[in-house]
Amino acid sequence: MNNQRLGLLVFSLACISSGRVFADEGHFGYDGSLGPKFWPKNFQTCAGKYQSPIDIEEHLVTRVSYPPIRYHGFADKPVGSTLTNNGHTVMLQLNTEEPLAVSGGPLKDHYLFQQLHFHWGHNDSVGSEDTINNHSFPMELHMVFFNQKYHNFTNALNHEDGLTVMAFFYEVSAEDNFVYAEIVEHLPTVVLPHSEAKLSRQLPLELLLPNDKSQYYTYHGSLTTPPCSEVVTWIDFKESILLSHEQVEEFRSLQDTDGDAMTHNNRPVQPLGNRVVYFNEREDYSSAVCSKSALILISALFIALLATN
Ligand SMILES: *[C@@H]1O[C@H](CO)[C@@H](O)[C@H](O)[C@H]1NC(C)=O
Ligand SMILES: *[C@@H]1O[C@H](CO)[C@@H](O)[C@H](O)[C@H]1NC(C)=O
Ligand SMILES: *[C@@H]1O[C@H](CO)[C@@H](O)[C@H](O)[C@H]1NC(C)=O
After folding, report:
1. Which domains are present in the chain?
2. 245 falls in which pLDDT band (50, 70, 90)?
3. Which pTM does this prediction carry?
4. Which of the residues 27, 88, 142, 220 is marked catalytic?
């Protein structure tokens, strides 16, 4: 190769890599110069006062009793389910006949389902994002919903009450979780970033969740990935979901945008600051009971009125 050609080659390589640096603005990761410490460089909100995840200290929570959370469409089989490797995590999106939604509990509005995804760690002793008494779980599920009154996810990111994320912790057990097997078996087909797969069996959302959802922690925080928008009502359930070590391990083989194994994608905990974490000890049915008895009372008065005529 003569010098001129070599010069051209070096020049082209320089162009390619500078193009790459340019495209990397807004790119983020979990290690080195793209890691969580550096997110605020490109995303100022990541240095905000109401960031997630946090460590939840059980002895500091404020105990409350919210009305029951209502789950809409969770028992229905989706029409289609798409698993996507988005370069940072694996995400499941569902097509349903009726909208999937949640309301009640600490929520003042109706929130529509957007997607669910997972966070995990290097090994089974780390991986969840929120921690409880500094305990980290091997994996965490995030079910993301946006406030219906803001019409769509993107628009909801501009409002303090824009999103709610329901978080569930996983624990490792000796047995495979046969419901999750459907997701885990499709992971090898979405190893590459920006690849997707359709699930063969359709799973109603409620099958992915623990039975007891009456106890949960709730607080105001942010997205745990850039742009770290502080618009999230977090609802972290106390009851865990069980997966086998082999099932959790399968998530670590996915590849990220840089072609590296996605061995971990959990942001470290952020300062709680002046925030309060609430713990729903038991659901409060009294408001529902109350309105029912009011209805009975009104009916009785109406009948009495008819009878006197
Ligand atoms: C698990 O991974 C964490 C984070 O990399 C590390 O600090 C810890 O030593 C590892 N634990 C074991 C048991 O390997
Ligand atoms: C968790 O870690 C923090 C910071 O190191 C410490 O102040 C706190 O006491 C720990 N909590 C528990 C329950 O050990
Ligand atoms: C999201 O909702 C906003 C406000 O209603 C609207 O202006 C915008 O076009 C919507 N975006 C999409 C992608 O539908």
Report:
1. 38-289 (3.10.200.10)
2. very high
3. 0.87
4. 88
